[in-house]
């Protein structure tokens, strides 16, 4: 670094951390490119606009699209943001460079193995495939490499979390009376949620799916592995969302020209997500037999309360933006909107992502409503919903945030702001087309995850417009979204190849309007919140899991239904197993 | 901790909204319209010996009372039995309780354009009741990815006029009786 930067950039202060962030972003963006390309092929195929693949290969593409975007892109990006945020907010480097590279290496190796298993499905006669989609519901079976790669990836994320906790512990040793800096607080609470929730998928993969795919056990209990998947499958939604929230709370107000409205309420929001994210997974299983209605009702109630932290976030983010606009001279009840920095792609991308999240939140309320859900379950409505949430609130915030973050770790200026602005607007417009059409197609009963919704015996009817028009919108939207990703990757590539700059980006983050001083210290008591989160999980899951194991033919399924006379003895076994499971939960959490 | 007045108002309104949502669902799901939830009342079945099962071994419709019927459906890659090779026939104005299970992997059973929709999971029986008010034809499709032929997995429900259905049903009964 020969340049002397007036304001020391992140890359100069923490060169090793910047290298880790660059590595995680690189994997994230490669996955984004491949996943988006698969998305384009799917959008054109299922609308019958252009078919370059066999319909059977559609599911290979769909598995790749889901895994590469929803797991690899989002979580590698999260790791980069969190690594940056911890070093920045604690103002100290990670404890061990080798350890940081170890988790990056493990996660990347796992990703490569899983991707190879998936793409193997495109090569005939290879005998390797993993066309099981992102949810890998057994008894559909993937090549063992798929599950092994996934397990390595998850363990890698656990080590990444340990890296950040180690930084925090070292910081705490020198700052015993201090409040946890806000960004670190967000990282740690998110990781605790992740530890609690990944236990489900780890148990499913390590104890059932890997031995089963290797032929060591004969069968699995399909409802059990499915329930364990959703035990993890809903909190992962918040794992995607929390890095976006971290940026909305700590970066967006600054980009808007102001400050965060309230630090304590930001803490409350992250704690609510820690407590409520996991005991809700059964809301993905409203239509599953074998789970009593009462458990579904509990999951529904918890889910509705999850609206609270998001509604609080909407308030804080809008209030912070308004504060920024007024600092910039904005006036009036709504005219202040015009004073916001709409030419800045980082700001505009995040603001548009937030606006779309509001729409996604309301279509999510339909999903969460256990009775209305029957109308749209597993229809195209559902991908319409999550392309607004993970596909825009998260993905667009990550892309927009990159325009501000990448220069901090490369030391180079953003290649082109106008291209960045065009890119984020294109994403927004493309998603308006694709997502509204998907929602409406779902109402007409068109299923999701289907290569070819061209059935012989019936036709879909839509109350407004036509099925043809919906297909055109989906194909057009999908194309715009893919082109938007191409522009993004091009802009980031040229940014990273640019010359070192004296002042790559204004990286200073101002203090919040209300700081943490006046807030109760109990907010920072992470051990207590972890305990409550674990307790809620135990309450929500013990009985449903026990019922599934008992009635569904045991841990490994396949067995005969249990005769009533035997069930008393079996009760004891189930209670023992589930309490051992809960103890395990308690220890790990 | 200082909370801005506007934020307190917003918080209160948010809670009202959430409780309101829960109340409408509680009303819709249990009181009032009483939308029947899929739950564990259908019981379980051994997927390995489904062919020997008294009901799922020969799935189809069975009269249980005045205008009351039970229908047993098996979903397997990539057909509904009955539904795909022959339509699932029910009489107009009847109340039909479906029992749906899967023989191999997880499938979906969705009557297109209605809220009759369930997962079909090996080992589990999904039980739900549908009222067929008008004669006509409905599509059934599998809405859970079940393998490379998932997109061809479809079927039909034929809601027949009572007299037409009765003569078909009688004929079925005689055939089955003859076999026994």
TrEMBL record, chain A:
Primary site of residence: membrane
Organism phylogeny: Archaea, Methanobacteriati, Methanobacteriota, Stenosarchaea group, Halobacteria
Alphabetized UniProt keyword annotations: Electron transport, Heme, Iron, Membrane, Metal-binding, Respiratory chain, Transmembrane, Transmembrane helix, Transport
Domain Cytochrome oxidase subunit I profile: 25-523
Family: Belongs to the heme-copper respiratory oxidase family.
Bilayer-crossing regions: 20-44, 64-86, 98-124, 144-166, 187-210, 230-252, 264-284, 304-325, 346-366, 386-406, 418-438, 474-494, 526-549, 569-588
Name used for this protein in its record: Cytochrome c oxidase subunit I
Location of the protein in the cell: Membrane
Organism expressing this protein natively: Haloferax mucosum ATCC BAA-1512
Membrane topology, as annotated: Multi-pass membrane protein
Automatic annotation (TrEMBL), chain B:
Entry's localization field: Cell envelope
Keyword rRNA processing set for record: no
Record InterPro entries: Ba3_CcO_II_C, CcO_II-like_C, Copper_CuA, Cupredoxin, Cyt_c_oxidase_su2a_TM_dom, NosZ/Cyto_c_oxidase_sub2
Signal sequence region: none
Domain Cytochrome oxidase subunit II copper A binding: start-end pairs: 66-171
UniProt keyword list: Copper, Metal-binding
Keyword Metal-binding: yes
Chief location of this protein within or outside the cell: other
Gene3D superfamilies assigned: Cupredoxins - blue copper proteins (2.60.40.420), Rhodopsin 7-helix transmembrane proteins (1.20.1070.10)
Pfam families according to UniProt: COX2 (PF00116), COX2-transmemb (PF09125)
GO cellular component: membrane
Protein name, entry field: Cytochrome c oxidase subunit II / ba3-type terminal oxidase subunit II
């Amino acid at each position: 670094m020969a340049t002397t930067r007036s304001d020391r950039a992140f890359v100069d202060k923490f060169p090793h951390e910047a290298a880790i962030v660059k590595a995680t972003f690189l994997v994230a963006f490669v996955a984004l490119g491949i996943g988006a390309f698969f998305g384009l092929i799917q959008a054109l195929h299922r609308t019958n606009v252009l078919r370059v693949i066999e319909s059977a290969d559609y599911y290979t593409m769909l598995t790749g699209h889901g895994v590469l975007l929803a797991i690899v892109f989002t979580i590698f990006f999260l790791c980069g943001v969190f690594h940056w945020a911890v070093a920045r907010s604690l103002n100290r480097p990670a404890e061990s460079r080798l350890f940081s590279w170890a988790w990056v290496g493990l996660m990347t190796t796992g990703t490569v193995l899983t991707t190879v298993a998936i793409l193997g499905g495109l090569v005939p006669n290879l005998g390797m495939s993993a066309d099981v989609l992102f949810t890998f519901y057994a008894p559909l079976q993937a090549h063992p490499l798929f599950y092994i790669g996934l397990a390595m990836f998850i363990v890698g994320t656990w080590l990444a979390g340990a890296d950040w906790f180690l930084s925090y512990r070292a910081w705490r040793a020198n700052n015993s009376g201090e409040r946890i800096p806000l960004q670190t607080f967000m990282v740690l609470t998110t990781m605790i949620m992740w530890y609690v929730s990944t236990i489900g998928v780890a148990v499913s993969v390590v104890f059932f799916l890997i031995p089963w795919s290797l032929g060591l056990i004969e069968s699995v209990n399909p409802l059990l592995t499915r329930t364990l998947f959703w035990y993890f499958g809903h909190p992962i939604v918040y794992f995607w969302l929390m890095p976006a929230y971290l940026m909305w709370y700590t970066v967006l107000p600054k980009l808007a020209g102001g400050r965060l409205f309230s630090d304590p309420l930001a803490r409350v929001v992250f704690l609510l997500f820690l407590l409520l994210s996991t005991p809700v997974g059964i809301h993905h299983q409203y239509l599953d037999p074998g789970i009593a209605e009462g458990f579904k009702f509990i999951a529904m109630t918890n889910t509705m309360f999850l609206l609270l932290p998001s509604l609080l976030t909407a308030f804080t983010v809008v209030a912070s933006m308004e504060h920024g606009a007024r600092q910039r001279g904005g006036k009036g009840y709504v005219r202040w909107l015009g004073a916001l920095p709409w030419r800045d792609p980082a700001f505009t991308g995040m603001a548009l992502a937030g606006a779309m999240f509001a729409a996604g939140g309301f279509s999510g309320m339909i999903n969460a409503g256990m009775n209305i859900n029957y109308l749209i379950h597993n229809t195209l409505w559902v991908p319409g919903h999550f392309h607004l949430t993970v596909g825009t609130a998260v993905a667009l915030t990550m892309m927009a945030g990159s325009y501000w973050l990448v220069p901090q770790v490369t030391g180079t200026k953003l290649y082109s702001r106008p291209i960045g602005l065009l890119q984020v607007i294109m994403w927004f417009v493309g998603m308006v087309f694709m997502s509204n059409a998907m929602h409406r197609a779902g109402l007409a009963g068109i299923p999701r995850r289907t290569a070819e919704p061209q059935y012989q015996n019936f036709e879909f009817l839509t109350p407004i417009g036509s099925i043809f028009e919906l297909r055109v919108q989906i194909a057009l939207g999908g194309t715009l979204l893919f082109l938007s990703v191409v522009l993004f990757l091009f802009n980031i590539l040229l940014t990273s190849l640019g010359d070192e700059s004296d002042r790559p980006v204004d990286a200073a983050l101002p203090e919040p309007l209300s700081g943490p001083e006046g807030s109760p210290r109990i907010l920072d008591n992470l051990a207590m919140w972890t305990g409550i989160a674990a307790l809620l999980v135990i309450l929500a899951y013990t009985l449903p899991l026990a019922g599934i194991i008992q009635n569904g033919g045991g841990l490994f399924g396949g067995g005969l239904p249990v005769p009533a006379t035997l069930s008393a003895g079996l009760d004891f076994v189930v209670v023992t197993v589930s309490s051992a499971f809960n103890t395990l939960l308690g220890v790990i959490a | 901790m200082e909370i801005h007045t506007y934020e307190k108002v917003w918080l209160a309104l948010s809670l009202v909204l959430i409780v309101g949502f829960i109340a409408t669902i509680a009303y819709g799901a249990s009181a009032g319209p009483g939308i029947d939830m899929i739950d564990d009342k259908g019981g379980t079945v051994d997927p390995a010996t489904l062919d020997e099962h008294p009901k799922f071994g020969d799935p189809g419709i069975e009269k249980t009372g005045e205008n009351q019927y039970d229908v047993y459906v098996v979903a397997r890659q990539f057909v509904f039995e009955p539904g795909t090779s022959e339509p699932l026939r029910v009489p107009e104005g009847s109340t039909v309780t479906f029992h749906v299970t899967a023989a191999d992997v997880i499938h979906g059973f969705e009557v297109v354009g209605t809220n009759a929709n369930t997962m079909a999971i090996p080992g589990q029986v999904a039980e739900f009741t549908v009222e067929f008010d008008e004669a006509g034809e409905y599509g059934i499709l599998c809405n859970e990815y079940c393998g490379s032929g998932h997109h061809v997995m479809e079927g039909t429900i034929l809601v027949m006029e009572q007299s037409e259905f009765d003569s078909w049903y009688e004929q079925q009964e005689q055939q089955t009786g003859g076999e026994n």
